[in-house]
Each structure stands twice: as structure tokens, then as C-alpha cells.
Write a structure and sequence with these properties.
The two termini are about 35 Å apart. Helices cover about 35% and strands about 20% of the residues. By secondary structure, it is an alpha/beta fold.
């Protein structure tokens, strides 16, 4: 069983009853819903906790940060991070939920004993600089964000995180360090992120003990956008609302008196891809190494291989009716065996160029390295559908004048001194207007170096309406 905690500020008093009822309706194995606020909102079925019971006050926030307009926002973050230490009777795991966030469909946040974390796309550098000042080990660990307006906390892990920071800043409680390390330049705006800190702490110290999963969600402006056919949950921020809150309409949206909604629309990408993905990945695991350095033996025998991703992408492209494949970064080694064979000592590189060319589709590949372009050209010499170029990939994509059904990003190497993350973002931005409405994007080397080649580009692709289908050695995103 888990508990839920809703920190409540004055702007969401009129909404919190809906949030609590939606939690009770949709969250599996939910025990107690706690509301932390300055005054008891009197929501039936919840327990009230006075925010005065926490070891910090609004005045502390204003004094240390020197802010007024954002003081309540920072106070709410401190409350979320300290819930486990203050509410002594709380369950060992508890779901902290923003007061304006409402679940629309059943969700489960513990699977096989492991917490489930949702994935967001927010990227705000001052957040990462702040958490690194709290402790040097707190770094951004993946291309995704932990900011999705709720997060499942583990009471022991939260205490562990606070102890880590307090050891690094002796003589100060965690909450004081949290405030003191906010950059004054960003204090009146957005200088810290509670969810980002805890999310990345767990990826550093408890990676094998968590499950990452992307729910369907949105920040909406009106009650009309609250749609259980599309979203698992929505957030209706007070500063983002276009109209006054229509309580009767929201009641019908959240607690309809008809049958359960059809989830087909929100799961369209997985419904489209699921059978093909399951076929190509049966019996295959895809470990994520993030910041871990791999030995040559690890590369050969432990690390996932590109082959199942490429084969799945080809089958999905055929199912989609796609015609044009564009690859940035050609194959680097000749293939000494047939496409049907797999040799881990040879196939760690992937030989993607040959696989794409073998489809018979309109295929274009470019590499800035003349040797790679030569190897690719020789491999594809007998395939008239394959077009091999030597040159700059971004310039090529900018000049490309055809619609792209499958874009494969595999150019800048994941090595020190190379802006591999930024390069692939620029490549996608150069191609985005040419990518077909129904299309596939595949990115190589996303299992290393904190997201590798996908660290910056994956959130941008998701914002353009793509759904995440596969994560591992490569990441596959589909828009249909």
C-alpha cells in the first residue's frame, strides 16, 4: 500500500477536492490521502497536516532567498521533500501530487516491488546547477525530466538523500542548504526543482531499483481539454487557465456516469508497434549504463545491440507504408557475413547502412568521414535505391527536399570533447519540417553517458508529438 500527499496552496483550494477524489478513484493500492496546507480544506476522505509542523516557515524562505513572489513555490518544494520526515505515520512509499493534477485513468506506481517513475521533457539548466551544488553526485542522469507534477517517494531514500546533502554542507539542515544554494539570479524565477533532485538522486543511487515509464499527460488550459480518452492525467495550473473553473463540467470529465473511456487513442503508438516490438525483442534485455564506463568485453557481451531495433524499425516502416529512409552517420566497418547472421564481435557496430539499403526503399546516408562514406558506398554498390554521400549531416538535412519516413540519427561519437548531444539535436531541428506526419525516429547510443546521443534531442522529438516506444542501446519514437 502507498499513501498520497497533496501540498495545497491558496490558488488551488477550489480544485483540491477533485484532485483527491481522482486519486482515490484511479491509484491502485492507495491507503491514506494527506493534505498539507495552512488551513484544513475539509476534503472528505483525507487527513489534514498543518504546514506549521514543518521545520521551516514562509519567513525562512523569504529571508534566505530574498524573494516575495516565489516564496510559496519554494516552500511547497521543501514540504514535498520533507513529508517523510514530518508525517511519522506515513506509508514507506508515498505519492506526492501537485494540487492541480488529476488522474483520469487507473495507474499503478509500484510494480514488482519497484517504484514507477513517469518521464517528462522539461529542461531548465539552473535546476541541474542547483542540485549539483547540493551535492556533486547529483547530476542530470537522462535525457528525460522528473518533473511531471507528481512523484513516488521512498521514505528511506528521501532520508538518504538529505543525509548526503547534509554531509556535504556540515552544520546546515537540508532545507537551509536547499534554499542557500539557489542562484540569486534565478531565485525570483525558477531556481530549484524538488522532483528533479529526487528523481536524479534515485537514478544515481538506486537505478536498478526503479522502473521508468512514460504516461500520457498534458498541461491543459480549460476543462474541455480534460480528456480520459487521451491522457492518464492532466494538470490544470491556476496561472495557465483560460477560463473560470466550471466545476460541473469538471465533475463530469473526471467522474463520468457512463462506461469507462476507450484508451485506444492514447495508446495508438504502442497498439501499432507492440506485436512487432515483442517479436524482435523476445528474450532480449536492454541494460542502461548511463555514467558507467564500459570495457571492451562489456561492449561485446553486456551491452545491447542495434540489430533488434533496426529490424523492428524496418518492419514498422513497412507496416506504416513508408518509402524514404535517411541516415546521418554511415556504417564504419564492412560486414563480413550475411545480414541473417549475428556475431557479437562484429555486430556491435550495427551495420545499419546495409540493413536500410536492403529494404529496397529510397535510402540516403551521409557521413563526414571519407573512409566511412567509402565503406558504405562499397557495401551498397549493387543497390540502386541506396544513395551514399560524404559531407556535413546538418547541411545535408537542411538541403534535403524529400519527405522522411524514417530518420536514423547516428553521427557524432559519444566521446569526451564532442558535443554529441547538441549535434544530434541540431540534426533533428534541420530535419523536423521534412519528417512525415506518420514516421519513425531512431537514435543510436542512448544507453550510455546519461542519454548519449539522445540526451537533448529525445525531449524535443516528444514535444513534436512522437511517442516513446523503445529505450535501450537505441531509442525509437513513433508518430502516427
Amino acid at each position: 500500500m502507498i499513501d498520497a500527499v497533496i501540498p495545497l496552496g491558496p490558488n488551488d483550494v477550489g480544485l483540491v477536492e477533485f484532485t483527491a477524489r481522482a486519486l482515490r478513484r484511479n491509484i491502485k493500492d492507495l491507503r491514506i490521502i494527506w493534505i498539507v496546507a495552512a488551513r484544513d480544506p475539509g476534503v472528505p476522505g483525507t487527513l489534514f497536516v498543518d504546514e506549521a509542523s514543518f521545520p521551516f516557515k514562509m519567513e525562512d524562505v523569504r529571508r534566505i532567498l530574498g524573494v516575495t513572489t516565489r516564496a510559496g513555490w519554494y516552500l511547497a518544494q521543501l514540504i514535498k521533500l520533507h513529508v517523510g520526515a514530518v508525517i511519522l505515520d506515513i506509508a514507506p512509499r508515498y505519492l506526492v501530487v501537485d494540487a492541480d493534477t488529476m488522474f483520469l485513468r487507473p495507474c499503478e506506481f509500484v510494480t514488482d516491488g519497484r517504484p514507477v517513475f513517469n518521464l517528462g521533457t522539461e529542461f531548465h539548466p539552473p535546476y541541474f546547477a542547483h542540485m549539483a551544488r547540493l551535492h556533486p553526485s547529483l547530476q542530470k542522469m537522462t535525457a528525460y525530466s522528473g518533473i511531471t507534477h507528481f512523484l513516488l517517494f521512498d521514505k528511506g531514500w528521501a532520508a538518504e538523500m538529505m543525509a548526503l546533502v547534509e554531509l556535504h554542507h556540515p552544520g546546515r539542515p537540508f532545507w537551509e542548504s536547499f534554499l542557500a544554494e539557489v542562484d540569486p539570479e534565478h531565485a525570483e524565477k525558477s531556481g530549484a526543482a524538488d522532483y528533479e533532485i529526487y528523481f536524479n538522486f534515485c537514478l544515481v543511487y538506486h537505478l536498478g531499483e526503479v522502473i521508468l515509464k512514460r504516461l500520457s499527460w498534458a498541461n491543459v488550459r480549460t476543462v474541455a481539454e480534460v480528456d480520459a480518452n487521451r491522457y492518464d492525467f492532466v494538470s490544470l495550473h491556476w496561472y495557465n487557465r483560460d477560463t473560470a473553473l466550471d466545476r460541473a463540467a469538471l465533475e463530469q470529465k473526471l467522474f463520468p456516469k457512463q462506461s469507462a473511456p476507450d484508451n485506444t487513442a492514447a495508446n495508438a503508438a504502442w497498439n501499432f508497434a507492440g506485436d512487432i516490438v515483442a517479436y524482435h525483442f523476445r528474450g532480449i534485455t536492454q541494460p542502461i549504463f548511463f555514467g558507467q564506463d564500459l570495457t571492451p568485453a562489456d561492449q561485446t557481451h553486456l551491452r545491447g545491440k542495434p540489430r533488434p531495433f533496426i529490424l523492428a524499425a524496418i518492419d514498422l516502416l513497412r507496416k506504416m507504408g513508408g518509402r524514404t529512409i535517411v541516415e546521418i552517420g554511415s556504417m564504419r566497418q564492412p560486414m563480413r557475413h550475411s545480414l541473417e547472421e549475428f556475431n557479437p564481435n562484429c555486430c556491435n557496430d550495427g551495420h545499419s547502412t546495409l540493413f536500410w539499403a536492403s529494404t529496397g526503399m529510397n535510402f540516403h546516408t551521409i557521413d563526414i568521414n571519407p573512409d566511412c562514406a567509402r565503406i558504405a558506398g562499397e557495401a551498397c554498390a549493387a543497390m540502386p535505391n541506396a544513395h551514399v554521400y560524404c559531407g556535413d549531416g546538418i547541411a545535408f538535412l537542411q538541403a534535403f527536399d524529400q519527405e522522411i519516413d524514417l530518420l536514423f540519427l547516428d553521427a557524432w561519437d559519444v566521446v569526451e570533447g564532442c558535443d554529441f548531444a547538441g549535434g544530434h539535436l541540431l540534426a533533428y531541428q534541420a530535419a523536423r519540417d521534412k519528417v512525415a506526419p506518420n514516421s519513425i525516429i531512431l537514435i543510436d547510443d542512448t544507453d550510455i553517458k546519461f542519454g548519449g546521443k539522445g540526451r537533448l534531442v529525445i525531449p524535443a522529438i516528444i514535444r513534436d508529438g512522437f511517442d516513446l516506444v523503445l529505450v535501450g542501446r537505441q531509442t525509437m519514437l513513433i508518430r502516427i
